[in-house]
Amino acid sequence: MDERVIGRSNQQLSVVGLGTWQLGADWGDVDDKEALAVLEAAAESGVTFFDTADVYGDGRSEQTIAAFLSGRPDLHVLVATKMGRRVDQIPENYVLDNFRAWNDRSRRNLGVDRIDLVQLHCPPTPVYSSDEVFDALDTLVAEERIARYGVSVETCEEALTAIARPNVTSVQIILNAFRMKPLLQVLPAAQEAGVGIIARVPLASGLLSGKYTKDTLFPENDHRTYNRHGEAFDQGETFSGVDYTTGVEAAAEFSALAPEGYTPAQLALRWIIDQPGVTSVIPGARSPEQARANAAAAKLPALSRDTLTAIRDLYDRRIKEQVEGRW
Fold first, then answer.
1. Residue 276 contacts by C-beta under 8 Å, 6 or more apart in sequence?
2. What is the pTM of this model?
3. For the chain, where are the E strands, in sequence order?
4. What mean pLDDT do residues 140-168 have?
5. 118 has a pLDDT exceeding 70
6. I need a surface site. Which of 156, 193, 196, 309 has the fewest CB within 10 A?
C-alpha cells in the first residue's frame, strides 16, 4: 500500500489506516478475539497506521492494539492515540500535569516508552489558542514521552487555528462525501504549512456504505442510537451530523455512483484518498472482511472527473445546507 509522510515529520503511514473506536466502545459489542482479527486483517492488507484514543473503551482499544503488536514484532505500525476526553471539558484541565498523567496511562496501555503521535481529542475551542497548551505539548516531546503531536478537531476554524502552530504535525478532521467543507480552506492551508491531514468518519458512521435503510436499528450501546442529536458528544461525530433520514436517501444516490469494481464504501474512501493534502483516511472495521475491503480502496484507480462532479452535485443538493454552517 502507498504510504505518505505525515506533516512536519519523517514518519510515514499507509494512505488507508485503521480507526479503532469500534474496537473499544460505542459501536455495540466487539469481543477481544474479533478485535484482534480485525487488527490482523488490516496489517496483512498493508495498513501501517492505527489510530486510537484513551477514551475508547476507557483504554480497551489501546490495550488491544498493544496485545496485538506484542505478538507481531515483525510489523512496523505507527500508532497514534488521543487524550483529553476523560475529564470535564473545560480549558483549565488542559495543563502539563494532566498531560503527563494522561500520557503515562496511555504509554502503559500501549506498552511503550514513547508514543509515535499524540493528539488532543477535540478539546474546548479556546484550547487551540493557548500558548501554554502547546508549550506543554512541546515539553512532552522534550521529555521523550511522545515523538510528535497533533490535534483532532470538530470545526474547520479549529483546524485552521491549529495549523498555524509551528510544531503541530497533524490535524484529524471529519472529511467525507457528506462533509466537504474542509476542502475549501483546511486542506490547502495544511498543505502550505506542511501539516498532515488524517480524515476520520470517512463513511459517515456507515451511511456511505449504502447498507442502512430508514428502518435499520442499532444497538442501544451504539452512538448511532444514543447520539443522533448530540446527546453524548458532538453531533457531527454521528452520521457526520446529517439527519438520518436525509442521510439514508442521499446514501442510496451515492451508492448508485460507484464505478464497476467499487463498493459504495470503497467509493467513499477513494474519494478521500484522491483529495490533495490528505495523508491518511482511517475507516473503522467491525470484521476482518471489512478491514480488508477498506484497505483495498487504496489500490483502486483514481475516480473520474465525471464521478467526482456527480458526488459534488449530490452533496450540494442534499447535504451542504445541513452541515456547512455548523462545522
1. 187, 191
2. 0.96
3. 3-5, 12-14, 18-19, 49-51, 78-83, 115-121, 146-152, 168-174, 196-200, 280-281
4. 98
5. yes
6. 309
